Amino acid sequence: MPSIPASLPTRRLVATLGLLFATACMPALAETHPGQGQLVSEVARDTGKSAASLNSLLDGAKKQQGILDAISRPAEAKPWKDYRPIFLTPQRINDGIAFYREHRALLESIGKQYGVAPEYIVAIVGVETSYGRITGKYKVLDALVTLGLYYPPRATFFREQLKTLLELPDNHLAGPVDTLTGSYAGAQGWGQFMPSSIRDFGVDADGDGRIDLKNSLPDIFASVANYFAKHGWQTGGLVAAPAQADGAAKPIAVKDSKPQWPLEQLEAWGYAPMQSLNPGQPTSLQSLQGADGMEYWFTFQNFYVITTYNRSPLYALAVHQLAQAIAQGANGQGTDRMEATQ
Known about the structure:
It is a single chain. This protein has helices at residues 8-25, 36-47, 51-59, 65-71, 80-87, 90-102, 104-114, 118-129, 140-150, 155-167, 195-201, 217-230, 263-268, 301-309, 313-330, and strands at 138-139, 181-182, 240-245, 261-262, 271-273, 282-290, 293-299. A hairpin with a 2-residue loop joins strand 6 (282-290) and strand 7. It has a five-stranded antiparallel beta sheet. It has a two-stranded antiparallel sheet with strand order 1-2. It is of the alpha+beta class and 342 residues long. The chain is 49% helix and 9% strand. It is globular. Helix 5 packs parallel to helix 15 (313-330), helix 6 (90-102) packs across helix 8 and helix 7 (104-114) crosses helix 8.
């Protein structure tokens, strides 16, 4: 008996099942980095970028052991007495004064626009990159691949930064993604912005259609000022003021630097201001190991804003003291007064 030919729907079903079986039996495409396929899928879905071009980009990135080593020994792990001399050097202060004087008109214009004291813009780029001289030797893509895909303790944060980097429009970066260099953490430019900060706070201040945090001083200054303003910087507000603890002062531990008590409460607990301050002002307290013993600092909203840039209170105090020294020197007051506010 001759065979009965299968119907067209049946033939299609058989062909489909055969294709599915063959696909299931095929080995998965090799990933250069763990989790690369999922990451590429997300970026392609969210942006419409080519999966092939994204894979090519990531295939060229390399895991760097030096980056994993660097993140395990951050400077912020040092006590204040050792941390402060790294950033409050005569050269950094003098370079900051010269930098402020050279770019005074632009700095003060941007400072006025955003309500941020210009010396703090200068201090940020001074602490972060020595006024643009040391912006980082690591490829940003390598750094974020290494920390986002090979560093479990903070993989969630760095993977999100890697995803954001891949999603940023070309005109939000100083150049092609695979040419960008920065810190071991993947921060780039004079202000060391992470990709999410470029996305959220970067400013095209020179109006050339590109946010360039490496080559455009207007973009650099405005982006730092915008970051501070968007995080709640108070124009003309205090940053930090020294305090003196009496022998019975109540030990105070703070989880972050957000002001949480009126200053008069801290006074009642045994911490006296060393200058005239508003007793009702919202305040926090930092207790730091200084070169000559414990130092106590009342800190305010603007100090907290600096810790959103880098959460270490040591960093915020270094930025504050450098800013004070720069402002004093740039205005012809000398830097000898800085010692009174340490």
